[in-house]
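TA notes, week 10

Several of you asked for a full example with nothing omitted. So below is the full record: structure tokens for the whole chain, then the designed sequence directly under it. When grading your own attempts, check the secondary structure regions first.
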């Protein structure tokens, strides 16, 4: 799933959404972003996909990613696991653990989402997602000076005071970005990552 830009993002130190049996289910397997300028053979093992291919393995509420251990170009890679929850509503909200591990304080990041396609069983196979932002940025700014209702600035990001504040910010983010930053298209590729 898409990674947060690191600034002007809605982040919380506690989850605002819990698993809901009425929520749509993402089909388990390999998912990738759809980019016009990133073409390759999807049948190859994911470790051999090019760097332009953003992907994750979705597995029953977990997203597994194969990421570099450092910022160096040829750095070794390792598997990272993060939990996610799809919260029903308009728009859907994707809550992801964005900081976890031994000795690390948990953090939760949020994306808005719209279902684009489902399989014959009703599982989601194509979705567009966008990071939920704190508010409009001034030119050259790292975080908004006008946070949307229910959001409080905290360093370069913001904290929500409710689930409704997150959903409201997701709607406003989509309206604000429009065609300048269209949502990321993510689609299911196959069951097995190899």
């Amino acid at each position: 799933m898409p990674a947060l830009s690191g600034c002007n993002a809605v982040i919380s130190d506690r989850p605002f959404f819990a698993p809901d049996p009425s929520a749509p289910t993402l089909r388990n397997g390999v998912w990738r972003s759809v980019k016009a300028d990133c073409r390759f053979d999807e049948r190859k093992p994911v470790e051999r996909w090019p760097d332009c291919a953003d992907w994750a393995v979705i597995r029953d509420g977990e997203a597994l990613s194969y990421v570099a251990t450092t910022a160096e170009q040829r750095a070794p890679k390792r598997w990272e696991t993060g939990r996610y929850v799809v919260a029903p509503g308009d728009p859907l909200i994707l809550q992801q653990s964005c900081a976890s591990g031994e000795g690390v304080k948990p953090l939760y990041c949020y994306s808005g989402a719209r279902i684009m396609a489902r399989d014959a069983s009703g599982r989601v196979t194509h979705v567009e997602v966008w990071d939920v932002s704190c508010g409009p940025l001034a030119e050259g700014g790292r975080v908004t000076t006008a946070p949307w209702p229910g959001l409080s600035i905290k360093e370069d990001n913001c904290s929500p005071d409710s689930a409704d504040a997150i959903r409201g910010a997701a709607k406003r983010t989509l309206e604000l970005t429009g065609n300048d930053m269209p949502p990321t298209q993510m689609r299911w590729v196959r069951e097995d990552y190899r």
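The CA atoms of residues 129 and 184 lie 5 Å apart. Use that as a sanity check on your answer.
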